[in-house]
Amino acid sequence: MLLPLSRTFLFSHPRTIFSSTTTMAAASSKPHLKGIVFDMDGTLTVPVIDFQAMYRAVLGHDEYVAVKSKNPSGIDILHHIESWIPDKQKKAYQVIADFEKQGLDHLQIMPGASELCSFLDSRNIRRGLITRNVKDAVDLFHQRFGVKFSPALSREYRPYKPDPAPLLHICSTWEIQPNEVMMIGDSLKDDVACGKRAGAFTCLLDETGRYDAPEYANVEHQPDYKVSSLVEVQSLLERDFELTS
């Protein structure tokens, strides 16, 4: 079910706010959307990596418990290990790579992703990708499912999400403004934060409703939209945006 995030506001955005009391003439003026940037793991592909098991393997049990208690909304493992000595970092990256390889062996495209891409193509809407996974995973995704995202920025691009730099880089490459772009992903702390910091529209994919939990109610960056499936995105776009190339 499509969930506008407020009964009072159709949606809110750093530059554009539409309220229920807006005049009919103003309400009919929809913002232009020229591009969509997607997360990959858990958004374009079915989630298969056990991230909690990966974090435990990287950190060890005691450190995992300590870090988790300080970050109840989620561990940012890549940022956490950046301060480690090179040898320890190397071992950590190898553990992460092993988990990601297991994920590649079971790679599946998310239901609704192909259809949504076809719809965007029919409207000449650009589509890009930002992932904290490696380039090999992006290349395999493109090859296996026959869909292309450009630019497609992987973990090798620094700084990575939730820094807005990769999204701003894509906007610059496309020569369009961030407020003409939507970021779609399944993570509040990475995807939504990246989009909000860049000044883009944001859509949170929450298949299981886990972000309905109380601990997420007061996080700094809330999405403009929330969906439980990519199948819902087309109707959202057609309803609330002027789609232009």
TrEMBL record:
SUPFAM superfamilies: HAD-like. Transmembrane segments: none annotated. Gene3D superfamilies: 1.10.260.80, HAD superfamily/HAD-like. It comes from the Eukaryota. GO terms for molecular function: phosphatase activity. Pfam families: Hydrolase. InterPro entries: HAD-like_sf, HAD-SF_hydro_IA, HAD_sf. PANTHER family: HALOACID DEHALOGENASE-LIKE HYDROLASE, SUPERFAMILY HYDROLASE, PUTATIVE (AFU_ORTHOLOGUE AFUA_4G13290)-RELATED. This is Haloacid dehalogenase-like hydrolase domain-containing protein. It comes from Capsicum annuum.
